[in-house]
What does this fold into?
Amino acid sequence: MAKLKIEDLKKIKERIHAETALRDGSNRVKVTVHMGTCGIASGAKEVMDILMSEIEAAAVSDISVTTSGCMGLCSREPLVTVEILGQEPIKYEYVNPNKMRQIFKRHVLEGEIQTPFVLARGAEVVK
Amino acid sequence: MLELALHILDIAENSVRAGAKTIFIDIAENRGKDRLLIEIRDDGAGMDPTTLKKAMDPFYTSKKVRRVGLGLPMLAEAAERAGGSFTIESREGAGTRVAVSFGLGHIDRQPLGDLTGALMALIAGNAGVDFVCRHECEGKVFLLDTREIRNEIGEIPINHPEVMKFIRQHIVEGLSGIGTEAKKLLSS
It folds into this structure.
């Protein structure tokens, strides 16, 4: 049975502490991958995989990732919402791993909205 | 949905929406008995008996944004197709338990698929929820308990990229250590 390597975790903790001391700790961007049954069935997990590996590769720690449920537009899944602090959220439709990579590199990192993939601007109203 | 890992992800996301704080995912492979068991338990809001009865109806959902709820029926169908069974138990205010079994060697059993990815998506996407995943295979056990990790890292969020990298490594090593057979597609 694989044991949790507590020593490694302690090292990670120290490293993160040293690094977060240099910035204020708040997240600059929030990325939401919609993970309802419809999203999962149309590839949201693959989108999430790419998003996580891009974040790891870019070595940025001011981006938060969350999942949310279905918002009723199942036919346009996978949906991803990118919300840069202080800006209106942008919803992307029919996201696949390649689009996710582009959205991450151009929008999340550089702030340039990827208009061809956009479904809507603004937050959905959950009833 | 073509992989059991995706079903697990879907059912566990239900638990998250039901306000669960800790979600248990148990997977057990038994080659001698030719059985694959998957169980997802949560401490969420649960359902009253009337709702529970309706939960298996594909045209019932608790959501207001659409009129179908396919997650549970699709998992039940996947189990029945592979010579297995499906049970769901729930108590209002206590939580819900979904247990499914499959014929491990059944030709129509979906492959377990990318369990690592499913667990990573759950942990990264729901930083406030704890996941305890136990995968047993022929007496060998892999255990991932995010509560243990949280104890060590203190106030650092569990979905910090460095911590996630550590968790991924832990899952990959752990799963390869137990020699799971359920991952494979039987026809290949």
The mean pLDDT of chain A is 88. The longest strand of chain A covers residues 29-34. Chain A touches chain B through 41 residues (CB under 8 Å).
